[in-house]
Specification:
- The chain is mostly beta strands and about 60 residues long.
- The protein has a domain of about 40 residues.
- Helix content is about 0%, strand content about 15%.
- It has a two-stranded antiparallel sheet.
- Strand 1 and strand 2 form a beta hairpin.
- It binds iron/sulfur cluster.
Length: about 60
């Protein structure tokens, strides 16, 4: 069986964070991808590491 579950940084499984201006991607040594929400640095209403996929978010700003 092939492994089709690899997560790509731009994977749609990140939901809105995948193309949000406030998202910073980080990758662990094991290849897991985390999204750091930069809004969390100034606004405690946003989690530092949002639980993916994020489907609705007030801070979402689409990348140009
Ligand atoms: S603002 Fe929302 S959509 Fe954007 S990175 Fe943070 S949690 Fe994700």
């Amino acid at each position: 069986m092939s492994d089709a579950q690899q997560q790509k940084p731009n994977s749609p499984s990140a939901g809105l964070c995948a193309d949000c201006l406030n998202a910073r991607r980080t990758e662990s040594a094991h290849g897991s991808v985390f999204i750091l929400c930069e809004l969390s640095l100034t606004d405690p209403n946003f989690p530092k590491y949002p639980r993916l996929p994020v489907l609705t978010c007030d801070g979402y700003q689409k990348k140009p």
